[in-house]
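User: what does the whole thing look like in 3D?
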Amino acid sequence: MKKRLVLPGEMIGTSEEFLPGEGTFEENGKIFSKNVGTLEINEKERTVNVKTVNPPVVLKTGDIVVGTIRDVKSMMAIVDIEKAVGKNRRITGESTGAIHISKIASGYVKDVGSECRMNDIIRAKVIQTEPSLQLSMVGPEFGVLRAVCEKCRMPLEKDGNKLFCKHCERTETRKIANDYGTAEQKL
Amino acid sequence: MELIKDGKRIDGRSFDELRPIKIEAGVLKRADGSAYVEWGGNKVLAAVYGPREAQPRHIQNPTKAIVSCRYNMAAFSVSDRKRQGPDRRSVEISKIVSEALDRVIFTEQFPRATIDVYMEVLQADAGTRCTCLTAASVALADAGIPMRDFVSACAVGKVDGQIVLDLGKEEDNLGEADLPIAIMPRTGEILLLQMDGHLTMEEFNKAVTLGMNACMKIYEMQKEALMKKYTGD
Amino acid sequence: MLSEIKRDYICQLAAKGKRVDGRKFDEPREIKIEKGVAKNAEGSALVKLGDTSVMVGVKMAPGEPYPDTQDSGVLTTSAELTPLASPTFESGPPSPEAIEIARVVDRGIRESKTVDFKKLCITKNEKVWVLFLDIHVLDYDGNLFDASSIGALSALTDTVVPAKRFEIGEDFKLEVEHYPVSCTSVKIGSAILLDPSLDEETVADARLTVSIDENGDIRAMQKGLNGSFTLDEVKSIINSSKIKGDRIRELIK
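Assistant: Here's the predicted 3D structure for the full assembly of 673 residues, as structure tokens:
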């Protein structure tokens, strides 16, 4: 079936026929579209949905985000979320998330500061949106994408599972994402 | 100046005729949604940003999004250069346009956020607020903002004792009344209504009917513009 | 903050002689110029430089001359970075960025004698033409300096002095005597990129705008941002600005 484009306020069914789904609203027994989008009718469940063509980016569980560590506390790291991966549009609503110490890495983490530091750029997964935004860095693709040397502020390079500063010949530890230093295409 | 001659208006239109109108959706790269409208000699761009976190925090509404519009005229849009920055007229128009759009948006879906609508008048000819509102509504749809309906707007006026649709520049300056109106086309609810001048009760009734019918025509053009952008025909 | 990651990426590409959008280092984006777009203006132009879009309008009215130039017309340039053009632009009084753009464009026109302001004198010591040049940014995707100055020059070439409206004789076309074209380059790491896109501009270390006239002479320059150039780099930028500027000039005329 050819997908039909519908517009805001367009009537797409009646409450007798269908249950109003995502992107729709009901008024006086009639169902209307809320958005510019494609009409999807689920005959089995008798629902109508409208899939918006240009939806605002509202974070939901499972979304992958990139952000900056704003603060490191004893039990968690606070992240300013910059964007949702794969979305060009900026995110809507709450943009500050927390990573609990238990969600920093798969193993036991004694000290949050040894896995991520202020101003590190990280990739994480959304694991909860209500009542507060919670993120997780557990998993090889999650963790720090870019970090700078504590002393000279030059970018650190990956050296096995640690980070190394060429200038100061120092090593720092982080929970590193598996594509550290080459992550730009996956933003 | 004679504004009506042999049953025709100064620009040759009949009493119930709109000026030529062109609507285009999705014309800007950076904005989340946008629209360009040419309406007679008016040229207007509208852009939507958001929903985004309202700043500063104390203006946030914990139950719904704020719809914040800014109507602005480019310095070169009018024959006497307009100074940069908002004047009292722009502030008033921004306010009533915000209120009209607020009614159609499902603001409760985005608590603490703001939906910013920016309207720039690049060339002004009379009827800029209706042109802006029409453009803003298309830009909101283009930005994927959930809405109950479009907002379609048009002005009606009285010229040489006649009720005429969509006042042109001279008619606006020399006419006896001006009545911009905006509606939700699906339900006919009136979202914006202003009037200045002098109308009898009978003339008002005639004007409102004429205006609302014209809004329905605008509505069709708004839908066409979005269909064109998203389906290519 | 993501700009740090973008910066690394742009530098990595630049080391291989590449740019994110596939352009050569000295290749500007596509330029489109449409004149006469605002009929209430004395002259106007809409310029698109890639996805950057700027509208420039000229308004003119009789006014008083400056005390030190009693026989010359007056130029007033303003720029408005409308919040429509970028999520980072805010409404309110002109930002330092808007003022810098307006001043750079203003100097480019004034100092290069693009317009002979003596010809805009109506009555010496009393009445001269005031030329308002308003730059209205509509879509910001990098390099507002060039989009604005190309727009300003294009709008001037479109301008008819509205003498009749002010009952000072017949309308006449504004004479554009010189065509200085500005070209902006940025330095990222060791790479020099002409006509920076928004991402390139965001991560750039230093910026240099060079305005060159039809004789190949330099008419204005502006260095920006907190990085630096070597003299050799400056000379090389001037050289490529001249070559690219010649092509842009043809589009404006």
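In plain terms: DSSP finds five helices and twelve strands in chain C. Chain C touches chain B at residues 37-41, 44, 51, 53, 55, 57-59, 61, 78, 80, 82-87, 91, 93-94, 132, 134, 136, 138-141 (CB under 8 Å).
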